[in-house]
Design brief:
Blueprint lengths: L1 E2 L3 E8 L9 E8 L13 H5 L14 E8 L5 E12 L2 H8 L29 E10 L4 H17 L5 H10 L1 E2 L6 E4 L7 E4 L12 H9 L1 H12 L3 E6 L2 H15 L7 E3 L16 E6 L3 H5 L4 E5 L4 E3 L13 H13 L2 H4 L14 H19 L7 E5 L5 E4 L1 H8 L5 H8 L1 H10 L3 E2 L3 H8 L1 H7 L3 H19 L31 H17 L10 E2 L21 H16 L2 H14 L3 H16 L4 E2 L1 H16 L9 H9 L3 E5 L2 E4 L13 H20 L2 H4 L21 H4 L15 H11 L5 H30 L9 H6 L1 H6 L15 H6 L7 H22 L4 H31 L19 E10 L20 E8 L2 E8 L9 E6 L3 E10 L6 E9 L3 E7 L5 H15 L8 H4 L20 H21 L45 H9 L2 H9 L16 E4 L15 E4 L4 H8 L9 E5 L6 E5 L7 H6 L10 H18 L41 H8 L23 E6 L14 E6 L4 H15 L10 H11 L1 H20 L3 E5 ...
Parallel strand pairs: 10-12, 10-13, 11-12, 19-20, 32-35, 33-34, 33-35
Antiparallel strand pairs: 1-7, 2-3, 2-6, 4-5, 5-6, 8-9, 13-14, 15-16, 17-18, 20-21, 22-23, 22-28, 23-24, 24-25, 26-27, 27-28, 29-30, 31-32, 36-37, 38-39, 38-44, 39-40, 40-41, 42-43, 43-44
Helix pairs in contact: 3-4, 4-18, 5-7, 5-11, 9-11, 11-15, 11-17, 19-20, 19-21, 20-22, 21-23, 24-27, 24-28, 28-32, 28-33, 32-33, 39-41, 43-44, 45-46, 45-49, 46-47, 46-49, 49-50
């Protein structure tokens, strides 16, 4: 029973002490005057009576009523019911306030309920002061309070004849029951009667209509977000003008939170004076009058709900996690069904006449029922995750949060995570976790209705029915006797407040009230307490948990088959069938990604422990540990699936004997997992085990027998029932249910709690003691367990990794997670030192001790261990740890002595002659990188990677050889290698080894030959070995001197001075070895050019099969070769003649003679008729170090002038001729960029010559003369007349939108702007696609010489119109951009790690980001421009950057495109030797060959050129004699440093080092090739690998490739890989051992089939499946060998076949060389599948793309198509045969003026949007095209002259285009109509 009201208080207005306008509340009287013992008087009531402040009011307001809630220090709530009325102010008060009347105008009770706008200051006597009657109670009976206070007020106002003291006394002494559904009638002695009903159960909240009102005011979504905000501990603020509404809203929100209790600040009505409470940091639910809205706006993290406006405002910084789906959407839809039942019927055609809408009270309960169901669904099965830690004297219960989240499948869910971590849930566990207590609706629901809710999910009506049932129960709880609510309470009359009150509210007689109270108290003491005994029962646990959504496991959906595999593998391991187990292992490791498989593993291993099979041999131990590691690696720190928990007893059980008395347990090998260093995991484990033991304590011995059969019984907590025994734990869903008698810990606890009061005192003491010692013994056990898993095996050496992953963070970070009680981080000292290798043992031990101590402190205080025991534990822990460290030392020592596990034998790589191993194989794992093919990605094929093997470092390469770790792949050897010289980036990585899943140090090496080695060192490789590997690699990659490179040190490696390998050592240390290498190299090479005057290459220089040009005599080289004497002043010695003759043999010279650019006769005289001559001015490399010795200059320029000209150019690289067109005789020149004072200065300052000419001016004049000489040496331009300019060609058009630059069809982008194109063409506006109109378009009125220079350098140049040359500024990229772009390209093609979402798009995106193809596009574009200019007869000087990078690329490409000779093998070699080697491209600098170049990095200028050649090769496959493989071969070897060809930066440097003329040495000792050309030549004799069978060149063909990025392809050199043998470019290594012939198989069996599987990225496809011709040639060789004839060279056979083919083709008159291989097929001569129709005469080609006629074709056809449109674009892609014909037929067409009508075959093509006509139906050559884009109208026509006579006149129609009118006539009227319709529809479609 409880008092209805504790206090009655009368509060009145009192003046403010400081005399301000606001008054303050004064308590006039309170009853009883002394506090109740059990309930002191709450402070601050006067504030809450008038929350907006005490103010006087100019008129009488009606009385108001509301209930405020105060919370005391014990978090008890006190309900203050306040009834306020107004009385006239007494004069004293009036005087005080008169002076403030003026200021109060605006303030007068703004927020007061029903406040009226203040009238003008009123005359005295008209002010009213508020007075409040307050009832304070701990019960929440709002209506009773309203009636009681109303009665007192009515008695006062109406002046009834009843003593107020009696009424108040009766009110204070009225006692009513708390709960239990009784009803009580009370009367206050004024003829009144009230019935009070108590709720059935105390625990369910009473909401009346508050929830329904809340939903009406705010709506579903808003209330749901407030609900989530309150649950996840956010601050919620309600605003309203009505106080009663505020308290209702707060009450409604709290009712929704049931069964959780809100435990933070809760103030439904907050007084204005206390508004600063809103800035508290803790969560709250507070209501504030809407008048104070402004104050609420300033709060940054408060969610504001405006009840009057119906809005909820969530600040940006606040994130409210939503309910987990599908609960969020389900709840939303049920709420809308309850609130708006008409919604479902709104769309019905015949809605039912009426729908019954629940009353507001009922609706309120229905809404609450929805939330009750929601909680039951959220917390379903929570009792299975409770841990009973103690039963007596009071239950101690812990909740296993991780297991709950794991089993509900909500680990990632933010909402549930926060709810479980919140205070409300902690209260829920301690209140509802108790196993023996009264139960309520929620307990029933969560235990018994879950299945029903599951079943109803998709049936809204059934859900609604359930909601209504629950609502009934809730309603019944609040109103147990619905019929009897009969109140009789007097009320004041209407507007009684306006009548003049007879007198102020009287002062009551305290004595009388007190006497009534005392009397009642005395009576109460006498009476027996009428307490209804609570009915306590065991709380039902309900069914076990299920996931909220059944998520399918995706890839690892664990089928029974997978579990079968796991079981089989384990049984093989324990039966010792290791081979079988090894085969299954990869499948098992894959399966273990799934939860069920991990669980299955734990169960299976468990069984083996129970059968006493825990002692394993080494191999078994290894397998078991690997599987456990695999299981644990996916465990999060919380271990929500209980895997780590299940394995914990196993890792301390499985062991192996290392030696007598030394046993190694599995835990020492599975420590690397984050879960072991998480305090929450250990706590959950500990509580689970304690529960098991406590349960065992109370079970009967009979029941207890098997409970400890499982080691410690601790296996499966978290998996099974509340403290269930282990078999339950790992029980799989669907297995047989547990036997009935197996009671869970909660059941046992419930029974014990029931018996507790009946036990004797001693018995109680004994049980408490037993429980306490059980907990204590478990704490000791766990201290041991934790030391096992936290102390590393080798504690002497602090393992960086271990600490980073484990204790270090754990001491600093994990405190902040949840376990604040494990306070204080003691880890600072540890954390700071642990990084160093010499950290002391004690340091690791100290950290572990601190960790364990904190754990022990927390769990022991929580589970009530006595302080003595706790002290004992603290003393024990360091000893336990120390003892364990000592044990581990022995284990560590012995484990080091173990014979290593049989690892696969290291496969030694095959080496080149002269290649030596520097570091023998280091065991490594090769891990898959971002290319998926090797790892069995989408390309298919097996998972070749990861592979296990070794990495070797030789003088030439880094090589990995090994086998796949996946035994199912088979015994495939995996090889990945690259030249040391190609290494571009080396970085350390930390990676997981594929087998043991341990983290290991690794190394990632990336090379510019597009290889990536991502390696993890095996644990047997010490960090020092790995470090040595890195150092040696670095030393080989960047030798201090170029002589240290492989190509140059090769010979000296065989010097006898090198010590032989001693047996005792593994060979000399690399340091001495490399020292010898360098020393010997110095000896050998140094001698040759320092000490000898006569140049004798040493004997090891050798060249096989020299070309015929090499004479046999020796060259003598004068001393001028020494750098000191190479000065311009040195005179020409007699021996220079010899130097000259050797220079003459250089490639350049041979080429100049071929081009007719001047000859060098023996007397160095020159033929005057030649416009150019070969000048020996640079033979001593005095003018320009980076130019060749002989240069082509105009005949008229003297050698001495060249010195001056060269000063105007960067690096002295003045313009020299490098090629001349045989047809137009135009020349191509190259030079470095201009210095500022060069031609630019000259042009700028031309009009103001200074009187005294300076040196600079003279050299500029020389330069002008020089250019003039170049121009005049071109015969057709000696007198060039009017000409045009090219100056409009600017960077803007170097973008991809310029279209000129190709005389071919559209789609080739060039670089000229349209106006330049038109001026060059000398015609009107250019074509639609920017191509010039006809081949003869380049007219001779153009500049004789174009200088292509860098835009930046030619800024502001105004060329003089009389000059005969013109500057073309273009914008080019610099070398550093090439470098950056290549880096990105490398990352795109060989990514270091797999992409996050692997898709072709991600590769293409990164390829685009690299901008590599854009650079290639620009190069091709400029080159095609230069080709056009040369072809039209203008000369071109390319003068970009320093003249050795982009200049070289452009000049080489131009020659390749213009001159078919360079497209042969010999010509290409000549081109590279001339333009790249002789003209000084800096190969060593760009390739960073030496230590000096290390910082500049790798810049692949030459590779970019090869890529351009590859693009041209793709578009013109029949124009090149060499195959694409040849380009890849050069791309690989120009960086490999295997050959000397691409070393050093210029001819000068090569001579200095004695490399250039070495071919002339004695040829005695057979040696490896020095020159890449020689190697190619030798190899070509043996195999056609460099030859292109499709080679069938067109005479004098100038190629003009498309250069748009869309036409470029990624070179497969960047992406292809052959893991069987490594890169295929070292031919000797790539040829694998021959396979035995079929007949004589070693096993003697029958010959097997010749089929073999070709794996992508493993086998070399060209070799596994050679093309038909290669196969035939091989076959011929084989047959010849069989017949015993000497095999014929492939080239001879091929040439013979070609000759025969040529003869065969003769008779039919079409057999020209071009129809060689495919005489009947139209040639794939042009790119992109444009087929050429061969005309009747020879092979005069008439192309459908009219702009590129060959020399023999007529110009007329090109004029026809002078106008072009989109239609031409299509003809690139489609042949005449497959063209698109939408509609076709015969029409008569009227010819041009005076021409007759003709019948033609017309084709309407909707795709190309054109009307074409042919002579007849079979004709394939189109005679004309009408572009539909130009058609304006189609109209009926009239018969004109010459029209067919027989035709109806309605069959005529006209087609009007923008240019003319076509007259047509069909055969009859319907067909005419059809044609008109078809054409019209075609037009409308467009």
């Amino acid at each position: 029973m409880a008092r209805l009201a504790d206090y009655f208080v009368l509060v009145a207005f009192g003046p403010h002490p400081r005399g301000s306008g606001e008054g303050q509340g004064q308590i006039l009287q309170r009853f009883p005057e002394k506090d109740w013992e059990d309930n002191p008087f709450p402070q601050g009531i006067e504030l809450f009576c008038q929350p907006s402040g005490w103010q006087l009011c100019p008129e009488r307001n009606p009385p108001t009523f509301f209930v405020a809630v105060l919370t005391d220090i014990n978090s008890e709530r006190h309900y203050c019911a306040c009834l306020t009325f107004w009385e006239p102010v007494e004069p004293t008060q009036e005087e005080l306030c008169a002076r403030d009347a003026a200021e109060r105008d605006e303030e007068a009770d703004e927020g007061g309920p029903g406040a009226l706008p203040p009238p003008t200051p009123s005359p005295p006597g008209q002010l009213f002061a508020p007075k409040t009657l307050v009832l304070v109670s701990r019960l929440d009976h709002v209506e009773v309070f309203r009636n009681s206070l109303g009665l007192i007020y009515t008695i006062h106002v109406e002046g009834l004849n009843v003593g107020l003291e009696n009424v108040v006394g009766n009110l204070l002494t009225c006692v009513i029951p708390l709960a239990g559904g009784s009803q009580r009638t009370i009367s206050l002695g004024a003829g009144d009667r009230q019935v009070i009903q108590t709720p059935l159960t105390d625990s369910l909240p009473i909401s009346r209509c508050s929830v329904a009102l809340l939903f009406r005011q705010l709506g579903i979504t808003n209330v749901l977000s407030l609900f989530c905000a309150a649950l996840t501990e956010h601050k919620v603020l309600f605003l309203s003008r009505s106080y009663q509404r505020l308290s209702d809203a707060c009450r409604g929100l709290l009712a929704l939170l049931f069964p959780l209790r809100y435990s933070f600040t809760y103030v439904p009505i907050l007084p204005a004076r206390l508004l600063e409470v809103l800035s508290t940091p803790t969560p709250f639910i507070i209501g504030v009058n809407a008048a104070f809205q402004a104050e609420a706006q300033e709060l940054l993290d408060v969610i504001v709900a405006d009840l009057d406006g119906g809005t909820v405002t969530v600040p940006e910084c606040v994130h409210i996690p939503p309910l987990p789906e599908p609960l969020q959407s389900q709840t939303h839809s049920i709420l809308s069904m309850v609130l708006d039942p008409e919604l479902e019927l709104a769309d019905l055609a015949f809605p039912p006449p009426t729908t019954s809408i629940s009353s507001l009270k009922m609706q309120d309960k229905e809404l609450r029922a929805v939330f009750l169901r929601l909680f039951a669904q959220l917390l379903q099965g929570y009792r299975w995750c409770l841990h009973m830690v103690r039963i007596h004297p009071e239950p101690v219960i812990r909740f296993h949060k991780a297991a709950f989240l794991g089993q509900r499948g909500l680990v990632e869910d933010d909402f549930l995570m926060k709810v479980l971590e919140g205070m409300a849930f902690a209260g829920f566990v301690s209140e509802r976790g108790v196993p023996y207590r009264p139960t309520d609706l929620f307990d029933e629901l969560v235990a018994h209705e879950v299945a029903r809710m599951r079943a109803d999910e998709n049936h809204p009506q059934r859900v609604l029915r359930h909601v209504k049932e629950l609502a009934e129960q809730l309603y019944k709880n609040e109103n147990p006797y619905p019929a009897v609510a009969m109140h009789k309470v007097q009320r004041p009359g209407e507007a009684s407040h306006l009548r003049r009150a007879p007198r102020p509210f009287p002062r009551l007689d305290e004595g009388m009230v007190q006497w009534i109270v005392d009397q009642a108290t005395a009576k109460m003491q006498g009476a027996p307490p009428a307490v209804k005994a609570e009915k306590r029962t065991t709380v039902p646990s309900g069914p076990p948990m299920t996931a909220i959504v059944e998520r399918s496991g995706g890839l690892h959906g664990n089928s029974a088959r997978r579990l079968e595999v796991v079981r089989n593998c384990i049984s093989y391991v324990f039966e010792g069938k290791m081979l079988e187990a090894k085969k299954l292992l990869p499948a098992v490791l894959r399966a273990l990604k799934g939860r069920a498989a991990r669980r299955c593993l734990a169960q299976e291993l468990h069984l083996h422990v129970q059968q006493n099979r825990a002692v394993l041999d080494h191999q078994q131990f290894d397998f078991v540990v690997r599987m456990m590691n695999c299981c644990l690696q996916d465990c999060t720190s919380l271990d929500e699936h209980g895997i780590a928990a299940a394995l914990l007893p196993l890792v301390t059980a499985f062991c192996r004997k290392l030696s007598p008395g030394v046993t190694q347990f599995a835990y020492s090998c599975v420590q690397e997992h984050v879960v072991w260093s998480t305090p929450q995991f250990w706590e959950a484990m500990f509580y689970g085990d304690v529960q098991t033991h406590i349960r065992a304590l109370y079970l009967e011995p009979a029941e207890d027998r098997d409970s400890f059969s499982v080691c410690g019984g601790s296996l499966g907590r978290g998996m099974g029932g509340p403290g269930s025994r282990s078999p339950v734990a790992l029980r799989q869903v669907g297995e047989a249910p547990v036997q009935e008698d197996e009671r869970s810990a909660l059941d046992v606890a419930s029974e014990q709690r029931r018996l507790w009061p009946t036990l004797s005192r001693e018995k109680q003491q004994e049980l408490v003691q037993k429980e306490e010692s059980t907990v204590f013994s478990q704490a000791i056990h766990y201290a041991n367990r934790m030391s096992y898993l936290l102390l590393p095996l080798d504690s002497s050496k602090s393992r960086l990794l271990r600490e980073r992953a484990g204790l270090g963070e754990l001491e600093s970070a994990s405190n902040s997670l949840v376990t604040n009680s494990m306070a204080g981080s003691v880890a600072e000292s540890y954390d700071t030192e642990s990084g160093f290798e010499d950290a002391e043992t004690c340091d690791v031990a100290g950290a572990v001790v601190r960790f364990i101590n904190r754990f022990v402190d927390k769990v022991c205080t929580e589970s009530g261990v006595t302080s003595d025991h706790l002290k004992g534990l603290h003393v024990m822990v360091p000893d336990i740890v120390q003892m364990h460290i000592e044990t581990l030392e022995a284990v560590h020592r012995e484990s080091k002595r173990l014979p290593p596990i049989q690892k696969p034998k290291l496969l030694r790589p095959r080496l080149l002659p002269g290649e030596e191993c520097v570091l023998d194989g280091l065991r490594v794992y090769l891990l898959p990188d971002g290319r998926e093919e090797g790892a069995g990605g989408p390309g298919g094929g097996p998972a070749l990677l990861p592979a296990e093997g070794a990495v070797f470092l030789t003088t030439y390469r880094v090589i990995f050889t090994g086998m796949p770790t996946d035994p199912l792949v088979g015994e495939q050897v995996v090889v990945r290698s690259f030249p040391v010289a190609a290494l571009t980036k080396e970085k350390r990585v930390s990676v997981q080894t594929p087998v043991d899943q341990l983290l290991q140090d690794g190394l990632q090496l990336r090379s510019c030959t597009f290889q990536l080695l991502k390696m993890a060192f095996d644990e047997e490789v010490g960090s020092d070995s790995a470090e040595l590997f890195r150092k040696q690699l670095h030393k080989l990659r960047y030798p201090p001197d170029i002589r240290g490179t492989f190509a140059l040190s090769l010979g000296s490696a065989h010097t006898p001075g090198r010590p032989p390998r001693a047996n005792k050592d593994k060979g000399p240390s690399f340091r001495t070895l490399s020292r010898n290498l360098v020393k010997n190299a110095k000896k050998t090479i140094g001698r040759q050019y320092v000490t000898r005057k006569k140049y004798n290459p040493p004997s090891w220089e050798h060249r096989g099969q020299p070309p015929p040009e090499d004479q046999e005599d020796e060259i003598s080289v004068s001393e001028e070769l020494e750098p000191s004497t190479l000065t311009p002043s040195s005179a020409l010695k007699p021996s220079d003649r010899m130097t000259m003759s050797s220079l003459v043999e250089r490639a350049c010279c041979r080429d100049y003679q071929r081009l007719g650019l001047g000859t060098l006769s023996s007397s160095l005289s020159r033929a005057k008729s030649e416009p150019f001559r070969i000048s020996p001015v640079n033979r001593m490399y005095a003018i320009c170090r980076s130019y060749p010795g002989l240069l082509i200059v105009p005949q008229s320029v003297q050698d001495n002038a060249l010195q001056r000209v060269s000063r105007c150019y960067r690096q002295n690289r003045f313009p020299v001729v490098c090629w001349r067109s045989g047809r137009s005789k135009a020349v191509l020149l190259r030079s470095g960029g201009l210095h500022g004072k060069g031609v630019v200065g000259l042009f700028k300052a031309q009009n103001a010559p200074s009187p005294g000419q300076s040196q600079a001016d003279s050299s500029s004049l020389e330069q002008e003369k020089y250019l003039q000489a170049v121009v005049s040496s071109m015969p057709r331009y000696a007198d060039a007349s009017g000409r045009n300019t090219l100056s409009g060609f600017s960077s803007a058009h170097m973008g991809s939108h310029g279209k000129w630059g190709s005389v071919r069809a559209s789609g080739r982008s060039g670089g000229l702007s349209t106006d330049v194109g038109s001026r060059l063409a000398g015609v009107g506006p250019p074509q639609a696609n920017g191509a010039p109109p006809e081949p003869g378009f380049l007219r001779p009125q153009r500049a004789a010489l174009y200088i292509i220079g860098d835009k930046a350098q030619l800024k502001g140049v105004r060329p003089d119109p009389l000059q005969q040359w013109e500057l073309v500024p273009i914008e080019v990229f610099e070398a550093r951009q090439v470098k950056a772009s290549f880096k990105k390209l490398l990352k795109a093609c060989v990514p270091g790690c797999p992409a996050t979402e692997p898709s072709p798009a991600s590769f293409l995106r990164s390829l685009e980001d690299s901008e590599w193809l854009i650079q290639i596009h620009k190069l091709l574009q400029v080159s095609v421009l230069v080709v056009e200019l040369l072809d039209s007869g203008s000369s071109v000087l390319v003068s970009l950057e320093d003249g050795w990078d982009i200049t070289t690329q452009v000049v080489s490409l131009v020659q390749l495109l213009s001159d078919p000779f360079y497209r042969t093998l010999e010509g290409f070699r000549l081109l590279v030797e001339k333009e790249w080697l002789s003209f000084g491209h800096r190969f060593s600098h760009r390739g960073a060959h030496t230590l000096a170049g290390q910082s500049s990095g790798f810049t692949p200028v030459f590779l970019q050129f090869l890529d351009c050649v590859h693009q041209i090769h793709l578009q013109f496959p029949m124009e090149f004699e060499f195959s694409p493989f040849y380009l890849k071969f050069l791309g690989y070897h120009h960086v490999s440093r295997r050959f000397r060809t691409f070393l050093l930066d210029s001819d000068y440097e090569r001579i200095e080092l004695g490399l250039l003329y070495e071919e002339k040495g004695d040829r005695r000792a057979p040696q490896a090739c020095r020159s890449v050309w020689e190697y190619v030549e030798r190899l070509s004799k043996r195999t056609p690998v460099f030859h292109n069978y499709m080679y069938a060149p067109e005479d004098a063909e100038v190629l003009r490739p498309y250069s748009n990025v869309s036409n470029l392809k990624v070179w497969d050199f960047y992406t292809e890989e052959t893991l069987a043998e490594g890169p295929p470019y070292d031919w000797e290594l790539a040829q694998g051992p021959p396979e035995p012939p079929e007949e004589e198989r070693p096993d003697g069996g029958a010959p097997q089939s010749r089929r073999r599987v070709v794996w992508p990225c493993y086998d070399s496809r060209p070799r596994a499946q050679p093309d038909a011709i290669s196969r035939l040639l091989e076959e011929m060789q084989r047959l010849e060998t069989e017949l015993g004839r000497p095999p014929e060279r492939w080239k001879d056979a091929w040439d013979r076949v070609k000759a025969a083919q040529r003869l065969e083709g003769r008779p039919d008159g079409r057999g020209t060389p071009s129809s060689l291989l495919v005489s009947s097929v139209p040639h794939h001569r042009r790119s992109l599948g444009v087929y050429l129709q061969e005309g009747p005469v020879g092979s005069t080609l008439s192309l459908s793309l009219d702009s590129d006629q060959s020399s023999g074709s007529t110009a007329s056809s090109s004029r026809q198509a002078a106008r072009r449109s989109t239609s031409t674009l299509y003809s690139q892609f489609q042949t005449a045969e497959s063209e698109n014909r939408s509609y076709e037929g015969t029409l008569y067409k009227k010819g041009a003026f005076m021409k007759p009508w003709k019948a033609r075959w017309f084709v309407l093509d909707k795709t190309k949007h054109q009307l074409r006509y042919y002579d007849h139906r079979a004709d394939t050559e189109c005679k004309g095209v009408i572009d539909l884009a130009e058609v304006e109208a189609v109209a009926p026509g009239t018969p004109a002259m010459g029209a067919p006579k027989t035709v109806d006149e309605k069959a005529f129609f006209d087609v009007k285009t923008t240019r003319r009118v076509y007259n047509f006539c069909a055969q009859d009227v319907p067909s005419a109509q059809q044609w008109v319709d078809q054409i019209q529809s075609c037009l409308s479609d467009a």
